[in-house]
Design brief:
- The complex is a heterotrimer.
- Chain A contains seven helices and no strands.
- By secondary structure, chain A is an all-alpha fold.
- Among the domains of chain A are: 68 residues; 71 residues, no CATH class.
- The longest helix of chain A is centred in the N-terminal third of the chain and has 38 residues.
- The radius of gyration of chain A is 26 Å and the shape is extended.
- Chain B has two domains: 69 residues; 177 residues, Rossmann fold (3-Layer(aba) Sandwich).
- The longest helix of chain B is centred in the last third of the chain and has 29 residues.
- Chain C is α/β, with parallel strands linked by helices.
- In chain C, β1, α4 and β2 form a beta-alpha-beta unit.
- Chain C folds into two domains: 51 residues, no CATH class; 201 residues, Rossmann fold.
- Classes of the chains: A mainly alpha, B alpha/beta, C alpha/beta.
- Chains in contact: A-B, A-C, B-C.
């Protein structure tokens, strides 16, 4: 009974929902559209509620690390303190996030740190290009040459100093790159269709945690 | 009765569904379907073997999606990553390796926990404490959290299967710095080149959705892969027809696809 | 042999500490910011088509803009969004702005609008800011079917009372879709453009999204602003030098630096392997 509840029922629910959303996309029938929209709204509500589960999971892991005084446990303690501060200050004021302390923390603490993590990508790109863009095989030569063409095309000064180069870069983007991009998009969509149909037939059991 | 412009798509979907069902039944009755092995999936055992030899854990993440698993583009990639987690957890349990799973989707916590516990219990291994970790549902806090996990835990293998944005490169670089064996797969075209460049093996596009089943070779998986070939064929024929219709003034063809 | 800890020159070049490269990168980029070289830039056809399409719209046309500016990349997205909105206001094109993916977009949009010269545009009549609406693609589809579906704008005004919504009721009444929302342009294409007869779109894309957008150019995507580079070209077209143009020398330096290190490492690698009698 518990196996049916834990595995078959969720698979059946998923299968029915896929069928409803599939039918709504192809058949013009207003009640179906209403039902499909309601299901999608409920999915968003369930996902929002799941945030609580995630927070509890994260907190339990941090608390466990703090109790055992594992390396860098003080960062986990600080994370929990900051979490509480953000939640408390967020609920102060008439609407969420209105309080000046919360807005100050968002603007002068969270946003700069957020931007910093994003900015690290630049350094990772330099390191990756240095280490990985090395000629080893025939296909790596093609990759290298096309990457150099695109990098030159993307450099603002190249267009100004050597306008004749721009059509070459545009050709690489318009013909091989766009063609391959379209190809990968189409085959990925086909793979997704197969995945959805397996779920429709309740055969994709890994989504309910079944290990065969 | 039908939505404008979707009739041909509906017919193709129905034909594909029937084809997949038919091939599934054929495989159940003993038909053989060849599926080429995916190097990234074959290498999972090698990665876990390396972790077992060095006594280090393995790290897995199914990537990031805005708004959780609901996202129409990112959600399916993350779900596909979670199906691969099945295989990864199974291999980790067999080799006695501690697995760490970092998640950016709170609704995936229960699912990943179920997958990991089932895998370890089947091998009569204790489930690692704190194996499944929800980091954050925001992109850069998630990135920072995973980088922190990698630096603290120092895994010997870093597995990234799912949907990724710019964090793909950051994770791969951190893995390179730590000397991890790196296996990856994504359907995100913009960030695929970074993973191909920096990882030992990489799944591209559709391979991500077929990966889990390419190893287990169940009738569902094999039938589905063959059925997808039918859809691929229909897509190519449609493209040729539309090209003919657009370039040779055969408007009845393009009107048919707009029906 | 190329050894990781080898002492020869080629080993040093091939096993350089990335931190040295990072220092050179930072120093060079900051130098070009403080002392611009004034290198010329060329307008590419995607940016030119973007600009020309907006130029071709008559005053009074209506544009829907999805402007989801992420806080982390605010500095990168700001010039792109600024160019778009300034052009729309200069051309007296009516604007309906909505954010559908990030709750912090509303805050970032307010910051952006402080930098835009709206001229004599009247709120409610010439432009409306609906703010952030939860619901992703479901909300997008509902909004396209009825532009007053969100009911209120970001400031609490009822949409049906605003003059702009007397002439713009559904996506059919819209002349241009502008996507300044990173990866979400595909959702705009699916929900706003394709179901309404391939409505023309212009896309503000970051560098990594460019390969995804190209297949849809030139229909229905009429033009693409390719990140900061596209924004700089746009500023040049508008003759309104700003942050994006100021960053071009720095971008040129970074590009040149990457090309130089790739070329040097490959030359050293090939020559070393040639000396060792090995194939590539």
């Amino acid at each position: 009974m518990s196996t049916i509840l834990r595995r078959q029922v969720p698979l059946a629910i998923a299968s029915i929902i896929i069928l409803i959303v599939f039918l709504e996309y192809y058949i013009a029938y207003a009640p179906l559209k209403t039902l499909s929209s309601a299901i999608q709204q409920w999915a968003i509500i369930c996902a929002t509620l799941a945030v609580g589960v995630g927070v509890i999971n994260a907190a339990l892991i941090k608390i466990d690390k703090i109790k055992k005084k594992q390396p860098y446990w003080y960062f986990d303690a600080w994370m929990l303190i900051v979490f509480v501060i953000f939640v408390v200050t967020g609920f102060m004021g008439k609407t969420y996030g209105e309080h000046p302390i919360f807005q100050w923390m968002m603007q002068y603490v969270y946003l700069p740190v957020d931007s910093t993590i994003f900015a690290l990508v630049a350094f990772d790109i330099v390191a990756a290009f240095y280490r990985s863009f090395r000629v080893r095989t025939g296909s790596s030569i093609i990759l290298l040459v096309s990457a150099l063409i695109i990098m030159l095309w993307n450099m603002p000064m190249v267009g100004g100093l050597w306008p004749g180069f721009m059509p070459l870069g545009s050709w690489v983007l318009d013909v091989p790159a766009a063609g391959v991009g379209r190809g990968i998009t189409i085959i990925t969509a086909i793979g997704l269709v197969g995945f959805s149909i397996r779920e429709l037939f309740m055969k994709e059991r890994t989504v309910v945690g079944v290990v065969d | 009765m039908f939505v404008n412009g979707h009739v041909i798509g509906m017919i193709m979907f129905i034909v594909t569904t029937i084809a997949i069902y038919w091939y599934m039944e054929r495989v159940k009755k003993g038909a053989e379907i060849f599926v080429r092995p995916l190097p990234a999936m074959v290498a999972i055992d090698e990665a876990m073997g390396r972790c077992a030899e060095t006594g280090k854990p393995a790290h897995f993440t199914p990537g990031f999606s805005v708004g959780g698993l609901n996202h129409p583009i990112m959600g399916p990639g993350v779900m596909a990553g979670l199906t691969i987690l099945n295989r990864v957890a199974e291999s980790a349990a067999k080799h006695g390796v501690r697995l760490i799973v970092s998640l950016a989707q709170p609704e995936a916590v229960a699912l990943a926990t179920e997958i990991v516990s089932n895998a370890y219990k089947l091998e009569n291994q204790p489930v690692p404490i704190g194996a499944v970790r929800f980091i954050s549902s925001e992109q850069y806090p998630y990135t920072a959290g995973v980088l922190s996990t990698l630096m603290e835990e120092r895994p010997a293998a870093n597995l990234m299967f799912g949907y990724f944005w710019s964090e793909a490169l950051q994770f791969a670089q951190a893995g390179n710095y730590l000397g991890c064996m790196q296996l990856a797969g994504t359907d995100s075209i913009g960030n695929l080149p970074f993973l191909v460049l920096t990882c030992d093996y990489c799944l591209i596009g559709e391979e991500l959705y077929a990966a889990a089943g390419s190893v287990e070779k169940s009738p569902a998986m094999l039938g589905s892969l063959r059925g997808q070939d039918i859809l691929r064929l229909m897509a190519v024929i449609s493209m040729i027809l539309i090209w003919l219709g657009s370039n040779f003034g055969l408007s009845w063809i393009t009107d048919l696809f707009r029906a | 042999m190329i050894h990781k800890d080898g002492k020869g020159f080629s080993n040093k070049i091939l096993n350089l500490d990335p931190r040295i490269l990072w220092v050179i990168l930072i120093v060079g980029f900051v130098y070009t910011l403080l002392s611009p070289l004034g290198l010329p830039i060329k307008i590419d056809k995607y940016t030119l088509d973007y600009y020309n399409f907006i130029e071709s719209l008559p005053p009074g046309s209506i544009a829907v803009v999805q402007c989801d500016i992420e806080s982390a990349s605010y500095s990168a997205q700001l010039p792109i969004a600024q160019d778009l909105f300034q052009h729309l206001f200069n051309k007296k094109i009516k604007v309906i702005q909505i954010a559908l993916h990030r709750a912090d977009s509303q805050v970032n949009f307010e910051r952006l609008m402080k930098t835009i010269d709206k001229g004599d545009a009247v709120y409610g009549e010439d432009w409306v800011n609906i703010g952030f609406v939860e619901g992703k693609e479901t909300a997008m589809a509902a909004f396209a079917a009825d532009l007053t579906w969100p009911q209120k704008d970001a400031y609490g005004n009822l949409l049906e009372n605003l003059p702009l919504f007397k002439e713009a009721k559904t996506m059919n009444d819209i002349d241009l879709i502008c996507s300044s929302a990173g990866d979400y342009w595909l959702s705009n294409l699916r929900q706003w453009s394709t179901p309404y007869g391939q409505k023309p779109m212009v896309v503000n894309s970051g560098g990594a999204q460019l390969p995804d957008v190209y297949p849809y150019y030139p229909t229905p995507v009429k033009g693409i602003m390719n990140g900061i580079i596209g924004a700089a070209q746009y500023e040049k077209l508008q003759q309104r030098p700003g942050l994006a143009l100021a960053l071009q020398d720095g971008l040129s330096f970074v590009g040149a630096f990457l090309i130089v290190i790739i070329v040097i490492t490959n030359i050293v690698q090939i020559s070393t392997r040639y000396k060792e009698g090995k194939k590539l």
